[in-house]
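Case study: Carbohydrate ABC transporter permease.
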Amino acid sequence: MVEQKNRFADFIIYSILAFACVATILPILHVFNLSLTSASEVHKSNLLLWPKEITFQAYKYLFSTNALVKSFYITAFITIVGTLLNLILTIAGAYALSKPELPGYKGFMVYIVIPMMFNAGMIPSYLLIKNMGLLNSLWALILTGAVSAFNLILMRNFIMGLPGSLEEAAKIDGCSEWTVLFRILIPISKPAIATIGLFYGVYHWNEFFLGVLYLSDSSKWPLQVLLRTIVFDNNMSNVAALNTLSTAGQAVEPANIQAASIIFAALPVLVVYPFLQRYFVKGMVLGAVKG
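Here is what the predicted structure looks like once written out:
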């Protein structure tokens, strides 16, 4: 009887998972096929499971200008530099906060936790960036998220969970704090560093709101801002580099361009994620109390 109940429960669970997989994959498959469909076939079906006429005209349309490629490089720069800066500041801050004997320890923790629940808002943030002279600068997108309080606390908890004897033994051997950090703690904290680095990287890659808020020069738009403009503006009238192609005489529907842009922007994450999925799973319990 118990075995039958377990089988029934497994059937329900697998059925729900199968439905979730189909519901997730179908939109991606539809957009991918739409990007490869000829202009004459775009409006003949609401759901494209396979293109009747495969054409790469939409991708040729996009890559015939450097607007998309330039935005890709801008996003790659923001992601790489931003993630490196995030990791440096987060690891250094977490190591310092992992020591309860640090002067002002409780005050620092309160100062870090409060922004997780409250923030000044969009207008004060904009005025701060303006007064710092960072408007229309890529550093506005990098510096504003230099440290995530959530990731800082996760990293701190992970370091506090490491055996204290390692640090004590290193200091007995004459190691300084920096040596302990770089030669002892960082090598054994690679899973935690990979996890928060992945969180930071995905955040920078997908960020578009700060780009809309701080960047009015379309030549400096990251990929997600350009993608937003392409998707919401069928005529691409807000993107000068793409607008020059409107007289090229190519048979491309706006829907094709939108679908091709979405696939281009999502492809790097779709390619990298399967190899890093285990770090996402490990990140779910990062810093948790283990019994």
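For the exam, be able to explain this: The chain has two domains: 1-55, 65-291.
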